[in-house]
Amino acid sequence: MESHLASVRERMSHDVLPTDRWPLFDIRVTVVDGGRTRVHIGLDLLIFDVWSLRLFFREWQALYEEPDAPLPAPGVGFRDYVTEAARLAEGPSYEAAREYWKRRVDTLPAGPELPLAAPVESIRAPRFRRLASRLDAPAWERIRERAAALGVTPSAVLIAAYATVLGRWARSPHFSLNIPTFNRLPLHPDIEQVIGDFTSVTLLEIDLSAARGTADLAARIQRQLWADLEHRSYSGVRVLRDLAQRRGATDGLLKPPWSSPAPAVRPATAAPTCRWGGWGSGSTASPRPRRSCWTTRSGRRTRGSRSTGTPWRSCSRRVWWRRCSRRTAGCWASWPRTRVCGSRGRGRCCLAGHAALVEAANATDGPVPEGLLYSGVLERAGERPGKTAVVAADGVLSYGELRDRACAVAQRLRELGVGPDRLVGVALPKGRAQIVAVLGVLLAGGAYLPIDPELPTERQNYLLDHGQVRIVLTGGEDGPGRTWPEGIRCLRVDLGEEVPAGAAPPEQVQQPSDLAYVIYTSGSTGLPKGVAVSHRAALNTCADVSERFSVGPRDVVLGLSSLSFDLSVYDVFGVLGAGGTLVLPRPGSGRDPGHWLELVVEHGVTVWNSVPSADGDAGRARGGGRGRGCAAVGAAVG
Question: What is the β-pairing status of strands 515-520 and 530-534?
Fold first, then answer.
């Protein structure tokens, strides 16, 4: 019997009823035993709002208790209401609302960008599972009392707590929420007895960085929400259409991963009671994972329907829900002693008693390391010149060899006038010569600009022109027909040439505030933009990472990242500055996790520094578990 019940529920919970045929609901009954029955109810929310659901069950219960009970039909239908509401929308209030949203459409932020393991659009068959938690009645009553004392509504408090929790994981503290509202206009005396979907949505702007605490955030939200609701005759759907016309897309606003608590709810006392028996289980399927809140007579309840196809990164379903619910409950129960804290107001919900702990954990201030980005590499070369520094497919370099060859490159560059804040292009594939080149540029007093040889020639030339580069270091293998733009001088980094041992670098001419490198963005949202980083900033990051993960001379890092990606800076200068060994995969193996694992085993890699997706690729290559190659990796950075 249990198997049958589970099977029926599984089928009905994700049934999509055809919208062009009646009915848009599915009701089934299973006779269990001893005269007991289990009722399975599937309702399409295209034709129901929350109040309509209550009407539906209240009338059903009336007929259940008295099959011949009279149920008078309302004097108006949903279609009549829609027609009349559309006619009223053409008045002055509609025009005023349209102008209000037209003024705000250019500055309205996108929805909260949260960390998902996969894009929502890639999920072909999402499955939903309901999870729930409860805030007891005394705690909820305390919140209502505090809200009244501060002059804000409970709904504003809930949205503030909800936004604070979202801000804990959102990329930006400035985002919009899709707020559902009840919009059942009093156009007929019987309108309260009509079943239909009367809900509307409004796009509520949230800025956690501007709030001084959760109480202040609730007050700001209430003011903004009231202003928005004054202009609700121009619906959120229309605003989204305007955004599509203005920006060309509304991706970020159409897919906030939650629907928020409704700011205008019916009184809980109006909810019909049910005496049929216990409620079994429920599920709500929607295009996005959903979280919602409502009041019951016994307290405030939080529930969510989470799509198992879009898991939070590195989080199980239960861990994900437990974290959200506990954090939300903590914010609610301690409000208004809760404040929004964390770096740059990123919306971390911080209880007053935990503020000191949070601030201590985030107190990362310390002395900025002295020197330049390459200083540690030269020091390690002086201490242990024979130790292996770089391992690549084309050979091995000791610290002494790396220093000597980089000094030879630096001398040539200095003779050509390279100095502080002068960019030198490095157009070499991953290998020993690439490391020699970047170190040589810095020793010469300049700053390096990675030019990936696999980029289209047009893109390479754009980077050279925009970066005002006049010298490019190459490997002499630029491909057939490769010609550099006029005015560009190419120097070949030839590891076959003899260089004097124990060479000294040119006299230092740059300061810690001078440029160390410039890395350009991918240009996916337009033209590439150069990110300029000083020696002081880059060295500070490298020193901090090495200290946090205790990276030292015994460590070996796998340098997966392209030189055009900022993670490579730590691979080269962080690990080598700490006296470790840098292992480089062969050129062109950026999509070959099997090769990466071979290198991990062969060279005893202890530090993995990459984007999370590369780690996931490696995990799949080793069969989803920790293979013997990765068992020795002691630190994962990135």
Answer: antiparallel
CA quadruple 543, 399, 373, 423: dihedral sign: negative
> What is the SS3 assignment for 559?
coil
Q: What is the DSSP letter of 460?
A: H
As beta bridge partners, residue 518 has 532
| CB proximity list for 382: less than 8 A, separation 6 or greater | none
End-to-end CA distance of the chain: 50
Q: Please count the CA atoms within 13 angstroms of the CA of 197 that sit on its side-chain side.
A: 10
pLDDT level of residue 144 (50, 70, 90 thresholds): confident
Closest to 533 (Cα-Cα) out of 438, 410, 399, 405: 438
Contacts of 494 (CB under 8 A, 6+ apart): 433, 476
Report which secondary-structure segment, H or E, holds 356: helix 355-361
What per-residue confidence (pLDDT) applies to 232? 84
Cα–Cα distance measured from residue 314 to residue 611, given in angstroms and rounded to the nearest whole number: 14
Q: How far apart are CA 446 and CA 419, in angstroms?
A: 5
**CA–CA separation, 351 vs 359, rounded Å?**
12
306: confidence class by pLDDT, cuts 50, 70, 90? very low
Q: Which phi and psi angles does 579 have, rounded to 5°? A: 90, 10
In angstroms, the Cα distances linking 337 to 215, 340, 354, 356 are 8, 10, 11, 14
More confident residue, 480 or 102: 102
CA separation for the pair 206, 112 (Å, rounded): 10
Say what the pTM is: 0.53
**Cα–Cα distance between 426 and 447 in angstroms, integer?**
10
How far, CA to CA in Å, does 315 sit from each of 116, 308, 312, 596, 613?
Answer: 10, 11, 5, 26, 15
With tokens 């560059």, the residue in question is 413
Whether pLDDT at 555 is above 90:
yes
pLDDT, tens digit, for every residue of 55-79? 888 888 888 889 998 888 899 999 9
Mean pLDDT value across the chain: 79
Is residue 336 reached through a cis peptide bond, with omega within 30 degrees of 0 on the bond before it? yes
Q: Which residues, 6+ apart, have CB-to-CB distance to 507 below 8 Å?
A: none
For 79, the token pair is: 């279609």
Asked if 539 and 373 touch (Cβ cutoff 8 Å), the reply is yes
Phi, psi of 389 (to 5 degrees): -105, -50
Average pLDDT on 132-148 reads: 82
d(CA 531, CA 374) in angstroms, rounded, equals: 19
Alpha-carbon gap, residue 383 to 399, rounded angstroms:
9
Residues in the chain: 638
Query: Is pLDDT of 344 > 70?
Result: no
Question: What's the Rg (C-alpha) of the chain?
Answer: 32
